[in-house]
Amino acid sequence: MPTGLDGKTGQVRPDAFRATLTVTFFRKKPGHLLMPGRALCGEIVLGDIGIPAEAAATQLHENTPSLWKIPRPDAEGHKYSRGHCLVVSGPVHATGAARLAARGALRVGAGLVSVASPPEAVAVNAAHLTAIMIKPFNGTAGLSQLLSDKRLNAVVMGPGLGVSPKTHELVVAALSSGASLVLDADALTSFQDDREFLFRLLHDRCVLTPHAGEFERLFPGLLAQSASKLEAARLAAKRAGCVVLLKGADTVIAAPSGKAAINANAPPSLATAGAGDVLAGFAAGLMAQGMAAFDAAAGATWLHGEAATRFGPGLIAEDLPEMLPEVLKSLPG
Q1: From CA 318, how far away is CA 290, in angstroms rounded?
Q2: How far apart are CA 310 and CA 237, in angstroms?
């Protein structure tokens, strides 16, 4: 480790040494992956000194494709066997975020993707969508009716949905459906004053995808009180009873069991409007295909970073799904 960098937390002293090259052995430490420490390491070379992989009895991983496997279409399968993802749209003036998530879910391999649209937003959503279907719904009862069709097996809620009691009610309805669920953005903030009620409803097919601000609203003080971002994400996942994907340059994915992965492939260009909506779509699209919540969250996060890296400068959120075919082709079958 560069001098002055805490290998467990990634925190640094004011006089910490900034390295050009860091060589470590057997496996990386959290401080090699968590910010701000990662920025002090320069190029990191992992040296093999003969320690067998099974010697690492750990629940902490660097997020790489060796940790999960992307579903591949079956020769005898059909679109329904690849899952049907539903993205719940916001009102007419805030529909773009849902469409970004829906495009992400479709590109990552879900067999069908639909946007559940309030009646007043149907026209604007329909004008922008082709392969993605529109399913009009009216309020909580309408969403519950849609989700009574169990072929709709994964749901994204939050992007552009609005922070309101209505969003609160819609999330409760979706949680009662039994579908896999990704909760992002407004779907999280709508529970900032009712977080314990939300935690009682969450289940093992849920993924929460907060950035630091949204995390603070659901888990007040936890980031500041924890030794590291990794510890905070693990404690949050245990408290919520589901997978927590704490976003950032060093995104941490944590399960209630304590299993966690730190993602280190995200370029700074991902700090752009709508990128998080696409990530939510990637995760739900993978869960629609049968991936477990932790694997889907980790896989989506790595794909998101790799797509952004391959695109390069000038990235906007719409570019991310279009880079996925190239990224997916590079992964082992």
Answers
A1: 25
A2: 31
For 137, list phi and psi in degrees, rounded to 5.
-145, 155
Identify which has the larger pLDDT, 55 or 148.
148
Confidence grade of residue 53 (pLDDT, cut at 50, 70, 90): confident
166 close to 187: Cβ distance less than 8 angstroms: no
Strand partners, 154: 85, 180
Confidence of residue 39 (pLDDT cuts 50, 70, 90): very high
The residue-averaged pLDDT of 33-58 equals 88
171 exposure class (CB count in 10 Å sphere: 0-12, 13-18, 19+): buried
The average pLDDT across 180-200 equals 98
Tokens of 144: 């519950």
Residue pair 300/283 in contact (Cβ under 8 Å)? The answer is yes
How do residues 192-225 score in pLDDT, each as one tens digit? 999 999 999 999 999 999 999 999 999 999 999 9
- Nearest-angstrom CA–CA distance, 147 and 145: 5
H-helix or E-strand containing 31? helix 30-33
Average pLDDT value for the chain: 96
pTM beyond 0.85: the answer is yes
Instruction: Name the 3-class secondary structure at 24.
Output: strand
| Distances in whole angstroms, Cα of residue 186 to Cα of each of 162, 168, 237 | 5, 9, 19
What per-residue confidence (pLDDT) applies to 57?
Answer: 66
Q: How many CA atoms lie within 13 A of 294 on its CB side?
A: 23
Radius of gyration of the chain (CA): 20
Fold of 67-329: UDP-N-acetylmuramoyl-L-alanine:D-glutamate ligase (3.40.1190)
Residue 306 CB burial class (10 angstroms; 0-12, 13-18, ≥19): buried
Instruction: Give domain limits for the chain.
Output: 1-57, 67-329
Alpha helices in 36-185 (DSSP H): 96-107, 122-128, 139-147, 165-175
